[in-house]
């Protein structure tokens, strides 16, 4: 198991920022860690990377307990914190050499060139960090997280604050990295998770509210409801083949369904067969944001 979190708790004074959460990430998975602002994403990631001591529970990386043997787990983890703190006065290669030295890496020169290439930093690699755009600063952060060739990458909102082009490019870099590494990345954008991974863990107010394959959540996305308004007052038994019906008023009916379009056809057929006058027949389909909102409201 690449990442294992067991009943992890973090209290800041009276506030429970992380409320006893558990999840696992398998080797080679890219998993999105999703939640609204203040949900506890960064706090959880800091505990997994050993930068913050849990108030309870434990985190394991590559089957090693993080809080007991932080140095050992730090070799296994590449971490891009939310506030990607860089030394702005340093040149890109100078900074990466400094990070490589911290990790006591051998063959530093070739490793630095390799990560520069890996994150698409080559055209800007001759500059001082202060001169780089936000997207390229983020690439420096990614390169620094990668230089010791960790098995696990923990990326805290890696595309936050970037323009749409840079977002797509950084996502592509992450996708590429995910081919050889386990990646846990945080975001508060459902579409971001959809673009990058198959599995999503959603956290809200310190609790996990979903841990599922995206395809299962997407199934819910296509569900929704159909509303039928007819002139005549009829009995519910007319719809006896259909489930999840609620009567809105005397002549209006609402149906929850996995397939609104199919149900509309079925209702149309019933109404035609029974000579009923349809005043309106409308459907609402949930979208990704609805699913996220329903889980985190
Ligand atoms: N050092 C701290 N001291 C006190 N409270 C903190 C501290 N760090 C975080 N918190 C609180 O813990 C809760 C979780 O914060 P955290 O930063 O983990 O959320 P997040 O999901 O990463 O949010 P965002 O998407 O805004 O970055 C928040 O209510 C936050 O105010």
UniProtKB/TrEMBL annotation:
<dbReference type="InterPro" id="IPR027417">
    <property type="entry name" value="P-loop_NTPase"/>
</dbReference>
<keyword id="KW-0067">ATP-binding</keyword>
<feature type="domain" description="ABC transporter">
    <location>
        <begin position="3"/>
        <end position="230"/>
    </location>
</feature>
<dbReference type="GO" id="GO:0016887">
    <property type="term" value="F:ATP hydrolysis activity"/>
</dbReference>
<dbReference type="InterPro" id="IPR003593">
    <property type="entry name" value="AAA+_ATPase"/>
</dbReference>
<dbReference type="InterPro" id="IPR019864">
    <property type="entry name" value="Motility-assoc_ABC_GldA"/>
</dbReference>
<comment type="similarity">
    <text>Belongs to the ABC transporter superfamily.</text>
</comment>
<dbReference type="Pfam" id="PF00005">
    <property type="entry name" value="ABC_tran"/>
</dbReference>
<keyword id="KW-0813">Transport</keyword>
<dbReference type="GO" id="GO:0005524">
    <property type="term" value="F:ATP binding"/>
</dbReference>
<dbReference type="InterPro" id="IPR003439">
    <property type="entry name" value="ABC_transporter-like_ATP-bd"/>
</dbReference>
<keyword id="KW-0547">Nucleotide-binding</keyword>
<protein>
    <submittedName>
        <fullName>ABC-2 type transport system ATP-binding protein</fullName>
    </submittedName>
</protein>
């Amino acid at each position: 198991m690449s990442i294992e979190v067991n009943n992890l708790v973090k209290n800041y004074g009276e506030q429970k920022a992380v409320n006893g959460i558990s999840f696992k990430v398998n080797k080679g998975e890219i998993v999105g860690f999703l939640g609204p602002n203040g949900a506890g994403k960064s706090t959880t990631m800091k505990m997994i990377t050993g930068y913050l001591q849990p108030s309870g529970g434990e985190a394991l990386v590559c089957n090693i307990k993080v809080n007991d043997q932080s140095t050992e787990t730090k070799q296994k983890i590449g971490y891009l914190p939310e506030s990607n703190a860089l030394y702005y006065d340093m040149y890109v290669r100078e900074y990466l050499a400094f990070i490589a030295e911290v990790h006591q890496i051998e063959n530093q020169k070739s490793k630095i060139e390799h990560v520069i290439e890996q994150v698409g930093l080559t055209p800007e690699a001759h500059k001082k960090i202060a001169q780089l755009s936000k997207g390229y600063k983020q690439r420096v952060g990614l390169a620094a997280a990668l230089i010791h060739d960790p098995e696990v990458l923990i990326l805290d909102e890696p595309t936050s604050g970037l323009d749409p082009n840079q977002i797509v490019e950084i996502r592509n870099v992450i996708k590429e990295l995910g081919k050889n590494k386990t990646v846990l990345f945080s975001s508060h954008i459902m579409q971001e998770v959809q673009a990058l991974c198959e599995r999503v863990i959603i956290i809200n107010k310190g609790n996990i509210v979903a841990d599922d394959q995206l395809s299962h959540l997407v199934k819910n996305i296509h569900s929704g409801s159909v509303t039928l308004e007819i002139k005549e007052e009829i009995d519910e038994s007319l719809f006896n083949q259909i489930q999840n019906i609620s009567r809105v008023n005397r002549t209006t009916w609402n149906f929850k369904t996995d397939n609104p379009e199919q149900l509309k056809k079925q209702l149309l057929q019933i109404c035609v067969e029974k000579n009923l006058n349809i005043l309106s027949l409308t459907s609402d389909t949930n979208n990704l944001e609805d699913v996220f909102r329903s889980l985190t409201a």
